[in-house]
Amino acid sequence: MTREEFAAAARAEGYDEIVEREMPAGFRDPEHQHAFDARILVAEGEFTITMGGATRRYRAGERFDVPAGTPHAEAVGNEPLRFTVARRHREA
Q1: pLDDT tens digit string along 36-81?
Q2: 16 and 70 in contact (C-beta within 8 Å)?
């Protein structure tokens, strides 16, 4: 899936923000949550997510979702991470 295909599909499902992000090798973000739904497409590197008691590693070309309000932790592998995130902000 290309970045353009990912963005078009996300917009069709109501995701209102598409952002390119980078994180350095070895970056760790302890458990936290977001006020928006996030859909992530990994472009380069490895992104490990721990959510709901399970840990999963995602590599280039793979995508995953983190629903709003879901506690999760993030870890980047030994190479820098590049990814696209689609965000769907919920109305208050």
Answers
A1: 999 999 999 999 999 999 999 999 999 999 999 999 999 999 999 9
A2: no
Is residue 90 a contact partner of residue 13, using CB atoms and an 8 Å limit? no
Altogether, the residues listed in the chain come to a count of 92
Instruction: Provide the number of structural domains found in the chain.
Output: 1
- pTM for this prediction: 0.92
CATH no. for residue 29? 2.60.120.10
Alpha-carbon Rg for the chain, nearest whole angstrom, is 13
Strands (E), the chain: 17-23, 28-32, 36-44, 46-51, 54-59, 63-66, 72-76, 81-89
